[in-house]
UniProtKB/TrEMBL annotation:
Species lineage: Bacteria, Bacillati, Actinomycetota, Actinomycetes, Geodermatophilales
Entries under Pfam families matching the protein: ACT, PDT
Gene Ontology biological-process entries: L-phenylalanine biosynthetic process
Documented EC number(s): 4.2.1.51
Annotated positions for site Essential for prephenate dehydratase activity: 180
Record pathway: Amino-acid biosynthesis; L-phenylalanine biosynthesis; phenylpyruvate from prephenate: step 1/1
Any one GO CC term of the record: cytoplasm
Origin: domain of life: Bacteria
Stored PROSITE patterns: ACT, PREPHENATE_DEHYDR_1, PREPHENATE_DEHYDR_2, PREPHENATE_DEHYDR_3
Name of the protein this chain belongs to: Prephenate dehydratase
Organism: Geodermatophilus sabuli
UniProt gene name: pheA
């Protein structure tokens, strides 16, 4: 009898109309599963950890405003989760209000803090003297405007349509061309197969030693592995204790990446592997140097085995 698998349940930062939902729609075909909005990044990750969702799509970083702390910390702490995909989404913002509202009528405006940061200058020009309020997402701000709780929202054009708002001002981003990188995270399980153009993410806690960060970077450098992102986050244990969240080129199944991670496991206080997944930013990993290929690593271990066997 054919086994029918239940559809994958994808959680995302909701409500409907977020950039996260658009990114999920762009990356996952409708027949691949169902979509369930979560009220926050933490809630989306918690749904996966509790088994109420099979995967969650959450924002990781934005080309203008940088990393999303809720995602960084949500992946670094708690039960382990694995990134299985990355998804890039252009983000553009509108100022939306209930039909009939004029710009001069607006007394309150809200959005996700990342969206407010990307539109801060324009909002000051358009709404002088009004302090923008944070919302859990751009679409949540739009929903609150539709419910009459706020006058205006900075949101995606799709959220304005979804909540039947009028666009008061189109394109309110301070910088055009912004892109947000989302990641799809799932419970621990088989890793995506290496494609030859992959990324690996991890969080490393380095000890309080002189040169500890240099040591960490050196493990990548000596194996010819390029980093695509690195940032520090407080471990929240005490002032001055940091973890490093980073992405590098390559798959943990590649000899050079596997060896680098094993070395970090030796030299760092803690290493959390966050996944290896296909690179999706349209760029190619840097060519692997001759001395860092899988073949070069295999040949070196064959040589070492011979040496150890007394046959140099
Ligand atoms: O609020 C949303 O629509 C989101 O998907 C979140 C988010 C973010 O966290 O950065 C995504 C893209 C934009 O940069 C603004 C907000």
């Amino acid at each position: 009898m054919p086994v029918t698998r239940p559809p994958t349940r994808f959680a995302y930062l909701g409500p409907e109309g977020t950039f996260a939902e658009s990114a999920l729609v762009s990356a996952v075909a409708a027949e691949e599963g169902t979509r369930q909005p979560a009220p926050s990044v933490a809630a989306a990750l918690a749904a996966v950890r509790a088994g109420d969702a099979d995967a969650a799509l959450v924002p990781m970083e934005n080309s203008v405003e940088g990393s999303v702390p809720a995602t960084m910390d949500g992946l670094a702490d708690g039960d382990p989760l694995l990134i299985t995909r990355e998804v890039f989404m252009p983000v553009g913002f509108v100022l939306a209000a209930r039909p009939g509202t004029q710009l001069a009528d607006v007394r309150s405006v809200a959005s996700h803090p990342h969206a407010l940061a990307q539109t801060a200058r324009r909002l000051t020009e358009l709404l002088p003297g009004i302090v923008p309020l944070p919302a859990t997402s751009t679409a949540e701000a739009a929903r609150q405007v539709a419910a009459g709780e706020l006058d205006a929202a900075v949101c995606a054009p799709i959220a304005a349509r979804r909540y039947r708002l009028d666009v008061l001002v189109d394109e309110v981003a301070d910088r055009s061309g912004a892109v947000t990188r989302f990641v799809l995270v799932a419970p621990p399980g088989p890793l995506p197969e290496p494609t030859g153009n992959d990324k690996t993410s991890l969080v490393a806690v380095v000890g309080d030693r002189t040169g500890a960060l240099l040591e960490l970077l050196g493990e990548f450098g000596v194996r010819g592995i390029s980093l695509t992102r690195i940032e520090s986050r407080p471990t929240r244990e005490r002032l001055g204790a940091y973890s490093f969240s980073l992405d590098c080129e390559g798959h943990v199944g590649d000899a050079r990446v596997g060896e680098a991670l094993a070395a970090l496991h030796r030299v760092c206080d803690d290493v959390r592997f966050l996944g290896s997944y296909p690179r999706a930013d349209g760029r190619e990993n840097k060519p692997v140097t001759d001395v860092s290929t899988d073949a070069a690593f295999a040949e070196a271990s064959t040589w070492l085995a011979r040496v150890r066997a007394g046959r140099p």
